[in-house]
Design brief:
With 378 residues, this protein is of the alpha+beta class. The protein folds into two domains: 117 residues, 2-Layer Sandwich (Phosphorylase Kinase, domain 1); 199 residues, Transferase(Phosphotransferase) domain 1 (Transferase(Phosphotransferase), domain 1, Orthogonal Bundle), CATH 1.10.510. The chain is built from twelve helices and ten strands. Strands 1-2-3-5-4-10 form a six-stranded antiparallel beta sheet. A two-stranded antiparallel ribbon has the order 6-9. A two-stranded antiparallel sheet has the order 7-8. Strand 7 and strand 8 form a beta hairpin. The chain starts with a helix and ends with a strand.
């Protein structure tokens, strides 16, 4: 073999080695690209988990309302087994009653809220039939049911109404009015602190003394200005604080009557009955919170005015907001003892509720715009 042939063979061998190495590297590069692609798909899939009906297992029924039901649920394949409340709102009923804005408004309000005493919204999504709000689960039920079992002493009521005040203060700082404050909408979280829920009647954009002209709310808790058709603002929620505090201790709203005409007349024209077992500080606070004239109502122009009232002497508001004060009542234990009063359905087999997620063929049908939400900070 000549020297030239030897050289050519060596060059050819070296070339083949280089080519083989390049092919190996290309395969490695392709494998890395494919792995990154799969990881990206997994990340997208994981980040979107929780925004489809198929993501959930229904564990029980928590309650029913005018527009739908609330279920106890958990995410499938979730090792933490975290429990959520799934609020289902029927689109056809909303459209028929022309109340779409309330469901969308509730989602918008909860998306903005960040307060330990306001129910947390984790996800929102929709199917062709329903809107879904996946919210914080409150195992203690609602305050209304607890008051049926036992009323609160003044010191106990002081603690819980103070937490309600912090929730309303947070809303007002965001220029949101709640408009439906009542014990039924005050839930008990797993730590026995209160959680304000059900924001279907909440309204955004109420700055300063701006008023909403809508007539809405629960009859026994309506402020006089709503009944007088003068519009309601932030002072209406202050009236609601007074009405709830009154019921915590006495067992009924301040102007309760069986006939609605009598009820409305008392709200507009009668002075509140201050029971003999009310302390003097409580009597004074009641008169100021339930003032008929919204412009003269306590705390309208200075939100700290209520906090500084003698009734709240001893409350450390900063510690309270951080949940550094232990609640005075074990509502969770009370609920377990008196479980027959509560309506939570613990047998998932009795729940007859199914739905179908959007697919490529109907993904644009009956859509509520921009309704999907994923909370990123949890």
């Amino acid at each position: 073999m000549t020297n030239n042939n030897i050289i050519n063979n060596e060059i050819r061998k070296e070339f083949n080695d280089i080519k083989g190495e390049e092919n190996t590297n290309n395969n490695k590069i392709n494998d890395i690209k494919e792995e990154k692609k799969l990881n990206t798909i997994k990340i997208i899939k994981d980040s979107n988990k929780g925004i489809k009906f198929a993501d959930y297992i229904i564990l029980g029924l928590l309650g029913t309302g005018s527009f739908g039901r609330v279920f106890k649920v958990k995410l499938k394949d979730d090792p933490s087994s975290k429990i959520y409340a799934m609020k289902v709102i029927n689109k056809n009923i909303l459209i028929r009653k022309k109340q779409m804005k309330y469901a969308v408004g509730e989602r918008n309000v909860l998306k903005r809220c960040d307060c330990p005493f306001i129910v947390k919204l984790y996800f929102s999504f929709q199917t062709m039939e329903n809107l879904y709000l996946i919210e914080e689960y409150c195992p203690g039920g609602d305050l209304q049911n607890h008051l049926k079992v036992s009323l609160l002493e003044e010191e106990e009521a002081k603690f819980y109404i103070a937490e309600v005040i912090l929730a309303i203060e947070h809303l007002h700082d965001l220029n949101i009015i709640y408009r439906d404050l009542k014990p039924e909408n005050i839930l008990i979280g797993g730590d026995n602190h209160i959680i304000l829920a059900d924001f279907g009647l909440a309204k955004e954009g109420i700055e300063g003394n701006l008023l909403s002209r809508s007539f809405c709310g629960s009859p026994a808790y309506l402020p006089p200005e709503t009944l007088n058709l003068k519009g309601v603002g932030k002072s209406g929620d202050i009236y609601g604080i007074g009405a709830v505090l009154y019921e915590m201790i006495s067992g009924t709203p301040p102007f309760y009557a069986n006939e609605i005409n009598v009820l409305f007349n008392k709200i507009k024209n009668c002075q509140v009955v201050l029971h003999h077992y009310f302390s003097e500080d409580l009597k004074d606070l009641m008169k100021k919170l339930l003032e008929k004239d919204p412009d003269k109502r306590f705390g309208v122009f200075d939100k700290n005015e209520i906090k500084q009232h003698p009734f709240f002497k001893g409350i450390d508001w900063e510690k309270l907001e951080k949940k550094e004060i232990n609640p005075p009542v074990n509502f969770i234990k009370q609920k377990n003892i008196n479980d027959q009063i509560f309506t939570e359905n613990k047998n998932a087999k009795k729940i007859n509720f199914t739905d179908v997620d959007y697919n490529d063929n109907n993904k644009f049908s009956k859509r509520f715009k921009n309704f999907t939400f994923i909370r990123k900070d949890d």
